[in-house]
Design brief:
By secondary structure, the protein is of the alpha/beta class. It is built from six helices and eleven strands. It binds zinc ion. InterPro entries: MetalloPept_cat_dom_sf.
């Protein structure tokens, strides 16, 4: 039973609902891949969900849309995992794993593609040029599944950048695993997989009436693609309006684009084309 389902309606309004992301960097065992001497490393970024008893600051309570928006374009904060792509990230979706409750599979894939495009181009809410020119492309369907285990660990890489839905334990929403060569600093990313929890009713494509304890698929996956390209987390308490925050409110579509810090951090690493 996920923690988020235990909430009391009244208490829910008194709390800031958080989607908690725990980021853990794992140095994997040396593995051969083409260059036998190069150790392969794995980074795991888990996006967990649940309610945290964050006490809202009265009398304002929850972050208003207006306040959210203004700080989103004023906060230049960001962190970098260390590794990045030198070539195009071509990724595929395992459509058969898309849960039925999300409806039309094409709409789901379009949502995932939109999230990837946001990070690729630097689509943002702040009027900044959308020309980051990071190279990624959606390459169609695959039968491969993300190399992510149900407990949120990283499995085997298989040479395919797969996005799939599946079971995730411990209230995890989505997990991104990255494999790279070289040192963590300036490493060369070679694979990124994203596993999205397929629990019924967890996500929405557009905010449902009377929304509660559901998350925006697009915003969540924008965050995950941010990880795939190399962005790390910023703390919710100080940077809760940025897309790479480690806490995201439920029922909000405010995280579909990039905030200032998300954008600037990507731009610093990938530049513009
Ligand atoms: Zn995260």
């Amino acid at each position: 039973m996920p923690k988020i389902d235990s909430g009391l309606a009244a208490a829910r309004r008194a709390l800031i609902p958080l989607l908690v992301c725990a980021l853990a960097l794992v140095t994997g065992p040396a593995t051969s891949f083409r260059d036998a001497a190069a150790p392969l490393h794995v980074a795991r970024s888990a996006t967990a969900r649940g309610w945290l008893p964050v006490i809202p600051a009265p009398p304002t309570g929850e972050i208003t849309e207006a306040a959210q928006e203004s700080s989103r374009c004023a906060d230049p904060s960001g962190t970098w995992l260390g590794m990045r792509w030198r070539n195009e990230l071509r990724w595929r979706v395992n459509e058969r794993t898309i849960p039925a409750y999300l409806g039309d599979r094409t709409a789901v894939v379009d949502t995932l593609r939109s999230a990837a495009t946001t990070v690729d181009t630097g689509r943002n809410d702040c009027g900044l040029p959308e020309n980051l020119g990071i190279q990624e492309s959606y390459a169609g369907k695959t039968d491969h599944r993300a190399g992510v285990t149900a407990d949120g660990g990283c499995g085997e890489r298989d040479g395919h950048n797969a996005v799939s839905f599946g079971r995730l334990n411990q209230g995890l929403l989505a997990v991104t695993c990255i494999w790279w060569y070289g040192g963590k600093e300036n490493g060369r990313s070679v694979e990124a997989d994203i596993l999205i929890d397929d629990t019924e009713g967890l996500f929405f494509l557009s905010v449902p009436p009377g929304c509660g304890s559901r998350w925006d698929l697009e915003g969540t996956i924008t965050h995950e693609f941010g990880h795939a390209f190399g962005l790390g987390h910023v703390a919710f308490a100080e940077h809760g309006s940025l897309t790479m925050t480690d806490g995201l409110p439920d029922c909000s579509t405010a995280y579909r684009g990039l905030g200032l810090g998300d954008y600037l951090t990507l731009k610093q690493q990938y530049g513009t084309n």
